[in-house]
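Check this.
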Amino acid sequence: MMRAFSLLTVLAAGSVLGACAGGVEAPSEPGVCYAVERGEEGKAPTFNVVARDQSQIEFCAARLEEMRLRFLTLGGNRREVTGAYQGQFIFIDRAGVWFGKSLDGSRFMALARTGDGRLAVPGAIEQEPVGPGQ
């Protein structure tokens, strides 16, 4: 009886882990920056090379931001871009740049937009002092 319970526990844990691992993984080729085109419902996304020989994820984000701005100047209306770099996803929107391990999971902010739309490290953006006598 105990052996059957242990076997069921292992099988249940394996199916839960398998369900989590079923998501789309970002390509992990060193130094290659990709733009990600999400597929239609039920279809896999497409990864298109934007730049090679990028030494850091922030440089890839800069290439994706350049691409986004270029499309906007050509009359496009897409304000959000998704990319990938060495196993991580990059999300660019009106608030800034976010990194995440999956397309639909949690993200953390890497770069925030300044008042004039440029990108900067969040802690580097100076705020106007607010308070009495300021």
In short: The helical segments are 2-20, 57-73. The two ends are 73 Å apart (CA to CA). The first strand starts at residue 33 and ends at 37. Confidence is low (pLDDT under 50) at residues 1-21.
